[in-house]
Design goal:
With 500 residues, the chain is an alpha+beta fold. 45% of the residues lie in helices and 24% in strands.
Length: 500
């Protein structure tokens, strides 16, 4: 009695497992007749249990399996040859609506009262197959990208053995893929990297110290013919089955190196030409200045000694000659200064920009008093540059600010500075006549004037000299302005390491 109750309880437990199983469970006999069809099977195939039990299992199979199943069971009964029993496989199932789906089928065999029974465990693998297909498609796309990449792509393992070598690498190094895959990557390296590479990989795996992984650098590659070439190498690290793999992206930079060398040579030649031109301008302007000073001196002597013998027109001519000589002398002095900036280097030192501004204002005191100009400033920094040239720069900019104002306007000038990561930014702001934006770059060119000398005196060299000085400071000079709204001349001076 107790034994029958235990058996009955075990059967109830078994039915509960079958009814709640996530996977489909089907039981067929040796003739292929369905004996059991659990709820999971109902969901998978779309049939109710009463529509399936008692019918041949081939109703759940698409062609050609539908037509072959009876023969397969007959062969198994006659010969005992198994094709799926005990091993399982992926097959196709057919739903009630005729649609098919992929399923993993595992089949086990049992016996009851001398009769063979087969239990099938069924799992819908549609999503699994879709995932596999997506992975396969992604892998194919990745392979297509790697194979058609302009840059070389190489994959090595933790021992330095090449696992992948794309067609771009074949062109770069002159090796076929089959000649490289399976070999140590150091075959692509010239000395001393060839002998050091194994030690580098060993040290990285032991200590984690990186020299190139994740950063990249410019190195040398060795071709099949033993010639070398410069290349840009970027290395990334990945893991596959817990093994580190290293992906190298390689770009031949031979042309870039050649262009850089040519540019460096051209800059050297331009610098030498600038120095030579500056020296020539300095000497020529200095020698011309001697003659102009002589003309100016003789104009003065002529006026003093013979002025009373000349009529009014003669005295006017002498005055015009003296004025022209004075203008020429100022221009030549500016040319000498401009040329000197190209080949003469001033010693740099630390100085207080506030004190330098004070000296500038003393030099400009006559202009300031005559125009009643108001010059203010914020606290200025202590900087490292040429004090003489810095003062000349400020004097030119403040002098211009005082000069270029509308008639009847009291000049107001403000000097300020602010710190930036690598430089100081100085600003000289005024309330002058302003500058049309279309002329912002032109005003820094030598002899470029926007007004006649009769309107505003000058040689047209002041801002060109300012630009040269600022470039010597490793900075930039520009203007922010519009007509009748004043101007702000901005210049930067690089900060040296003690300051930064």
């Amino acid at each position: 009695m107790h034994e029958r109750m235990a058996l009955h309880g075990s059967a109830e437990h078994l039915w509960a497992v079958l009814d709640t199983a996530v996977d489909g469970i089907i039981l067929i006999d040796a003739l292929g007749t369905i004996r059991m069809f659990n709820p999971a099977c109902e969901k998978l195939f779309g049939y109710g249990q009463d529509e399936v039990v008692g019918r041949n299992v081939k109703m759940l199979m698409p062609s050609p399996f539908h037509d072959e199943h009876d023969r397969y069971l007959e062969d198994y009964r006659g010969s005992g040859v198994r094709r799926i029993i005990g091993i399982g496989r992926d097959v196709e199932g057919r739903r009630k609506d005729g649609a098919t789906f992929p399923m993993a089928l595992s089949v086990g065999e049992g016996h009851h009262d001398g009769e063979a029974l087969f239990v099938g465990i069924i799992r819908d693998i549609t999503e699994q197959n879709q995932f596999k297909e997506a992975l396969k498609e992604g892998a194919e796309q990745l392979k297509a990208v790697v194979d058609t990449a302009v840059d070389g792509v190489i994959l090595i393992d933790s021992r330095g053995i090449v696992r992948m070598f794309n067609p771009a690498c074949e062109q770069l190094f002159g090796y076929w893929q089959c000649e490289v895959v399976g070999q140590n990557v150091k075959m692509l390296m010239p000395e001393p990297f060839h002998d050091e590479h194994d030690d580098y990989l060993e040290n990285y795996q032991r200590s984690g110290e990186r020299k190139i992984i994740g950063i990249g650098r410019e190195v040398e590659g060795r071709r099949h013919d033993s010639t070398t070439f410069p290349m840009e190498l970027s290395v990334g690290e990945a893991r596959h089955k817990n093994e580190p793999l290293f992906v190298g992206i390689i770009r031949d930079i031979t042309k870039r190196r050649q262009a850089e060398d040519q540019r460096e040579l051209m800059m050297k030649r331009l610098t030498e030409a600038d120095i030579e031109r500056g020296h020539f301008a300095h000497v020529a302007a200095h020698d011309l200045g001697q003659s102009v000073r002589m003309v100016s001196s003789f104009c003065g002597l002529l006026s003093a000694s013979y002025g009373d013998r000349l009529d009014e027109r003669g005295r006017e001519y002498i005055a015009l000659m003296g004025s022209a000589a004075g203008t020429m002398r100022a221009l030549l002095d500016d040319l000498v200064e401009h040329g000197r900036l190209d080949f003469e280097k001033e010693n740099e030192s630390w100085f207080d920009a506030n004190k330098s501004l004070g000296v500038v204002l003393e030099n400009l005191s006559e202009s300031i008093e005559a125009s009643h100009a108001v010059v203010t400033n914020d606290e200025l920094p202590t900087i490292c540059a040429s004090p003489v040239r810095f003062a000349r720069l400020l004097q030119n900019l403040i002098g211009n600010a005082i000069k270029y104002v509308a008639s009847g306007v009291v000049p107001r000038v403000h000097v300020s500075a602010k710190i930036a990561p690598d430089e100081w930014i100085f600003r000289v702001t005024d309330n002058g006549i302003g500058i049309n934006p279309m002329y912002h770059s032109r005003i820094f060119e030598p002899f470029k004037r926007l007004h006649t000398a009769s309107q505003y005196a000058g040689t047209g060299m002041g801002l060109a000299i300012c630009k040269k000085i600022v470039q010597g400071f490793g900075g930039r000079l520009w203007v922010e302005s519009s007509l009748r709204k004043g101007s702000t001349f901005v210049f930067s001076i690089r900060r040296v390491w003690e300051d930064a």
